[in-house]
Design a protein that fits this description.
alpha+beta; five-stranded antiparallel sheet; two-stranded antiparallel sheet; elongated
Length: about 180
Amino acid sequence: MVKSMLQGICSEIEEVTVEPKNDPLKMITIDAEGISDLTYYHHELFRVTTENKETYALDLTSAQYGYYEPIEPWNSYEKLRVRKIRKVLSFGETRINELLAQEKDQGWELETYEAFLNGSRACLDLALLGWEALNISFKTLLRLPDEDFTKVRGELYASIGTDLENMIPEICKKIMDR
C-alpha cells in the first residue's frame, strides 16, 4: 500500500527501526510486584527519499508516542525523536526476513520432531529385541493364559519404560548436536 501510494514521488523507501526518545506520551508498564518496565522499545517507520533527494520520516503510527504529524523531514525527526537507529532495511525486507525466519523455525521443528520420532522408534526396537532375548518370545507371550499374559505384559511395559528413560537423553543430545 505504502509503495503504491508513493510511486513516482520517491526514489527510495527504507524500513527503519529506532529506539524512540522525547515521547510526549509515555507508557510505563508495572508488573504484579510493582516493578516498572523501563525498557526502550523499538519502533518502526519508513524513511522516504523523494525524486529531488529530500528525505522524510513517514511514521504512520507516531500518534502512539504523542506525535500527530506522520510526515516530517528526516533530519528533524531523527534529532527530536530518535535515541538510536537499530537497523535500516530496503522496503519489503522486514517481511521477507520474517517469512524466512518462520520457514526456518518450522523447518527446525519438523526436523527435530522427525529426529526424535526416528530415535524413539530405534530405541523401542532395541528395547523390544532386548526384552525378548532375555525373557520370552512375543509369539509365546501372546499364547499365554490371560493372567500370565497380563503379568508378563506389565514386566514388558516396565522394561520398555526404563529403556526409553535411559535412551531419551541420548536421543535429545543427538538432535541438539545437529
